[in-house]
Every structure is written in structure tokens, then in C-alpha cells.
Amino acid sequence: MSFEAAVGEVDITPVHPPYPSLWMGGYGWSPRGNHGAIARRLRAQCLVLWDGGAPKVLLRADLISIPRDVNQAIRGTLVSEGLVAADDLMLLASHTHSGPLYGDTKPSPQVMMGLTQADIDAVNGTTWLITDALVQLVRDTLDLERTDVTLSYAEGEAKIGHNRVADDFAVLDTVPVLRLDTTGGDLFAVVFGAACHPVSRGNDEVFDSEFPAVASELVENELGVPALFVQGACGDQEANDPHVPATTEELGTVLGQAVLDVLGDDFDAVTGPISTAMTEVDLPFHTDTADPDVRAAVRAKYKLRLKVMPQTDPNRRHAAMMVKLIDAGELPTSMPMPIQRWRFGGLSILALAHEPVSAYDVNLHAAFPGNLWVMGYANECEGYVADNDTLRSGGNLHGGYEAGWNQGDNVIAGLGSYCVSYAWPGPLKFSDTAVPAAGTTERIVMDASLSLLNS
């Protein structure tokens, strides 16, 4: 069965003017901004597939993450214009740590970098210029001439990272590749993935679309067709050391060559029709912040941090924000998580929001037969989603960064953990048993994912 396809692209590299902010995202805990240096330009790419019905739109961008309000704005605009159905739009961030700070909520510019309100206003100005460009890219791609294509899928391997949480935890080396060929037999486009944090360049002030862009450019230069990178479940997958610009070139070349190698292999046919679905689950915190007594205990702990920590400490800035939310009656009780499924004949794609760790990729592949592509950083990204083993280990693994708690205190956010930068009150719910109990994070995510995959 053939599809119709179109691919569009736009440069989203902020340059001042007209972009009011060149503040960068990806690293804490002090101000970090670009001053005009660009190693590789940031871009957004849009793939539209038609299988005789409504268009299916995959929009990927070289951004650190997409906040919830931005996801809702992009999706709401395109849906209200009648251009795409909500379940038929998939937004994907590459998670480059050398791009702009995007949005003013999660992560919090105030907590993460101590930015002033004027700086945050500028961040919002840049955010909405990029957002407008993304929406327009979808409009423009939908208007492009359509090409009849066939789809096929295969997997390769690229060893570009390691598991930073624990040496004996999973390392995801798989390189999923979806190829689009014209009905005349010519290659039309390539969509490929990996699961690895784009931090290979290191913490500097240069805009860079990172090793995924090196890989994409290698494929594009070799084959003369668009190559679109999508990120996997890389919450605990770290790029190999050292984190310097030369490593970006090295890892991108390894990944790009792996894609080229796969394209010489046999592929499984991918057919239509495309079935899409999306659900949203609420991931509760380990501490029930809906309980007034619990909120009072949480407030007391954060008030103590305010008392003992210096003004410049990001953990103090976070504590001040939590006390303010509690006093205003606005402390969240859970973290919403969209989960999306696109099913083809011969391939299922599961797109997980936020920063899922590798265990979800491993466990989903073990539970679901057939070709499965697990993507992360999908639609919105507002925190880490760790598995139960990581969550219950707290500060014993990687300082509790992915778990969200440390120092033996699972009631509030761990010092320097993701809960601080993403401005959450504490870690997600876990069970102290090896098998995650009903109502805990891993169980909620796995049950919802498998329900979508099997429906």
C-alpha cells in the first residue's frame, strides 16, 4: 500500500534581533546565554503522511523540550484551523542542550538560572516567535505537492552513550529507521532515531543542534533526501565522554553511518491504514499534596530551606516558589503525562511525554511483540519519568537526580534533582517492592502504554 507524503523544514535558530532572548536551556544553575556563536543551525522538520484520509503530522524540532502550554497552543491552533486532528499531530523535541530556553514554566527560568522578570519576558518573546514558525511550518508542509511513497522499517545499532544512573542498567543502542521510497523506487526521506542525551558538546554558549544534526547532515549529504531525527527514552542515557565539540562530530558520524548501513539492509514493509490514539495519565507524587496536613509538612520543610540556604542557591529559589504555591493554594498534586500511539501495519510507534528512562523502552519491547518504536520528549516535556527501581533508590543512584529525591527525604524535591529545575514539589509515586504496585508511576505508565498498543 502506498501513502502520500510531504516534508518541510524551517530554520529556528534565534538571532537578535528579532528574537528578544538568546538565553539557553539544558544546564543549570546559573545564567547561560548565546552571544551569536552558532556551530550548527537549529531546525524544525515536518513530515506529513496521507493514507487516503486525514493527514498525520510529525513535527520535530531542535529544542530542549516543549512545555505543556506550548504543546497546547500549537495543537489547539492547528486543530481549531481544521488542519489536523489532535491525535494525528505528534510533536517531538530532539532535546539538544545547546539550544534556546523554550518557555517560562518547566523548567523554570527563575529557579534554574535565577533570571529576572525582564529576562523571562524576553524568553517568552523568543518562545512565541519559534512557536509561530512551527505552526506555519505545518501549514506550509500541508500545502506542498504530495508524493506517492511506500514505507518500510528496520533497525541498526550505534554505540554512542552509556547509562549514567547505574552501570548495570540498560544501554539503548538501537537505531530505528523508517524509510520512505517513491513508488518509482527512489528514496524520498528517512526518519531515524536514537536514545541518547544530546550533551556531547558540553556546557558552553554556542547554539548547536548537536550530534543528531551531524548524523542527519551526513545522511542528507550522502543520499540527497531529508533525514529527520527523533529522540528515544533517553532519560538515563548519556552521550559518551568527553563532552567537547569533537565528541559531537564523532558520535554524530557514528550514528549517521549506522543509518546508512541500515539502509543497505532488508526492511519490513509498513502498510496502512494508520490508526492514531492518545491518552493522558496523571502521575501522582509520592507524598499526597492534596492532604492539608501533608501540605503543611511540605511547607515546613521548604521554610527550613529558606532559612538555612543562601540567596543565590537554586534550591532556595525552588523552596521559595513551593511556599508561594502552597500559600496560594496552587501546589500541584500530580504531573500529567500524554501518551500517543500511531499504529501502521508492521510498525507501532509509542510516543511518551517527558524524559522517560530506558527501562520503559526495555519493558515495553518485552511486553509487546512486533516492530515497536518508543519515542520520548513527545508532545510535552516537564520532568523525568523514572522506573520504580530508580524511584525507590532515590539518592543512592546518580544522586537521586532522575528519582527526584535524596538525603533520605522522599517528601520534598531532592537537592539539585530534576524536581528543582522543573519546579515540582517532590518525587513521583513509587512502591518499596521490586514489583511496582498499582497506582505507582511505572505501573500507571506501563498499563496505559500497553492498553494503547493493544487497542
Description:
Among the domains are: 3-272, no CATH class; 290-327. It has helices at residues 68-80, 109-113, 117-143, 210-223, 245-262, 292-308, 314-327, 358-367, 388-393, 418-421, 441-454, and strands at 3-11, 24-25, 43-50, 56-61, 89-93, 99-100, 147-157, 161-163, 174-182, 187-194, 227-231, 237-239, 268-284, 334-345, 347-352, 355-356, 372-375, 384-385. Helix 1 (68-80) runs parallel beside helix 3 (117-143), helix 4 (210-223) crosses helix 5 (245-262) and helix 6 (292-308) packs antiparallel against helix 7 (314-327). The protein is 31% helix and 25% strand. The strands form 4 sheets. Strands 1, 3, 4, 5, 7, 9, 10, 11, 13, 14, 15 and 17 form a 12-stranded mixed β-sheet that branches. A two-stranded antiparallel sheet has the order 2-6. With 455 residues, it is α+β, with helices and mostly antiparallel strands. The chain starts with a strand and ends with a helix. The chain contains 11 helices and 18 strands.
